[in-house]
Design goal:
374 residues; alpha/beta; Aspartate Aminotransferase, domain 1; Aspartate Aminotransferase, domain 2; 2 domains; seven-stranded mixed beta sheet; five-stranded mixed beta sheet; 14 strands; 38% helix; 18% strand
């Protein structure tokens, strides 16, 4: 029998690895799901918003196809952001919008640019569509208890001039750093499509760049309901973009990309007063967690903390053995954090911010691990 050959460029693609489900992990560890502390996916640690539960409980007409434009949700977003309806498009998570923008604007001979490290879906989707992906490496700088990734902005801008699409994650994933508005101003002055992924902007002390969109023909801002609104399982994201770009993206979007449950849940979440309250609590917990880590760093001095403007904290360890062994130790206790196998990230662990009581357990286990040696 003849084996059908795939598209040439797919042969070298490595599948994107998402996080395991709680059911699978509970079975592996022989631990009840309720005992697992899941801090590996930057998910919202709180129970679903009561408004969302009420909305999903009263769903009707699910035998009908959903509104192809998610019109009611767009109207709510436009009012909230004080922008025009025609600046918004809804996607099945912001991942779908990243892919649609790549499909719409990148030819096979073009270059898509970002930094390293950053959100892996950008490089993955670029490769899926056979587009050259370039990542300008950031330099790791350590000072006292802290570390941060430093981007040579002039070098990046030089490469951007030879690119078609530029992605900037702000705050960046995995480190939670926020590039300056001045840098973005320099970037959008170039003849390139600039896409700012603001999946974690609600947890930041910096302002969203959504209000900038009407001023530029080449600026797109992506947002999501997965993080601050806690709807990761329903896959709802949105893009804020110039009307001409929106028109192009709509022309290639699948008609029923966001289901009825996702649309209605997002609408109800948008007006919930609990969202801001929970963000405030998570930011307080983040600062407490960083302070506790700093006390441990001062004592053991074998890791560094990345200041974060997002709902996670990245740690860089003295050696890959320490990060891997700590990951295994936490995993054995039912505490899930993000471990990296790529050569440029093997010294790092990323820990999502969970409920305060769970972060106390994380600190206790890190303290125990460091105390006994690794």
């Amino acid at each position: 029998m003849t084996k059908i050959k795939t598209v040439d460029h797919l042969a070298s693609i490595k599948s994107y690895e998402g996080v395991k489900s709680l059911e699978i992990i509970a079975e592996e560890l022989n631990i009840p799901i309720a005992k697992i502390i899941k801090l590996d996916g930057n998910e919202n640690p709180y129970d679903p918003l009561p408004e969302v539960i009420a909305t999903l409980s009263s769903l009707k007409n699910i035998s009908h196809y959903p509104d192809t434009l998610s019109s009611n949700l767009i109207q709510g977003l436009a009012k909230k952001e004080n922008l025009e309806v025609n600046n918004f498009i809804i996607g099945s998570g912001s991942d779908e919008l990243i892919e649609l923008l790549i499909r719409a604007y990148a030819n096979p001979f073009d270059t898509i640019l970002s930094v390293s490290p950053t959100f892996g879906m950008i490089s993955f989707l670029s490769q899926v569509h056979g587009i050259k992906y370039v990542a300008v490496p950031q330099q790791l700088v350590k000072k006292d208890s802290f570390a941060h990734y430093f981007l040579d902005e002039n070098q990046f801008l030089d490469v951007a001039r030879r690119s078609k699409i530029v992605f900037i994650v702000r705050p960046n994933n995995p480190d939670g750093n926020v590039v300056s508005e001045k840098f973005i101003e320099r970037l959008v002055s170039l003849p390139v499509l600039v896409i700012i992924d603001e999946a974690y902007i609600e947890f930041s002390n910096f302002q969203s760049l959504a209000k900038w969109v009407p001023q530029y023909e080449n600026l797109v801002v992506l947002r999501t309901f997965s993080k601050a609104y806690g709807l990761g399982g329903l896959r709802v994201g949105y893009g804020i973009m110039p009307k001409d770009i929106r028109k192009v993206v709509l022309s290639i979007k699948q008609p029923y990309n966001v289901n009825i449950a996702g649309q209605k849940a997002a609408i109800s979440a948008l007006s919930s007063p609990l969202v801001d309250q929970r963000i405030i609590e998570m930011k307080k917990t983040r600062e407490w967690f960083i302070n506790q880590l700093r006390l441990l760093q001062i004592q053991y001095k074998n890791f560094w903390i990345h200041p974060s403007e997002a709902c996670y904290v990245l740690l860089t360890f003295e050696s890959p053995e320490i990060s891997k062994n700590l990951f295994k130790h936490l995993y054995s206790k039912g505490i899930l954090v993000r471990y990296y196998s790529s050569s440029d990230m093997i010294n790092n662990l990323r820990i999502s911010i969970g409920l305060q009581e769970n972060m106390v357990k994380v600190i206790d286990e890190i303290k125990l691990f460091l105390k006994r040696g690794n």
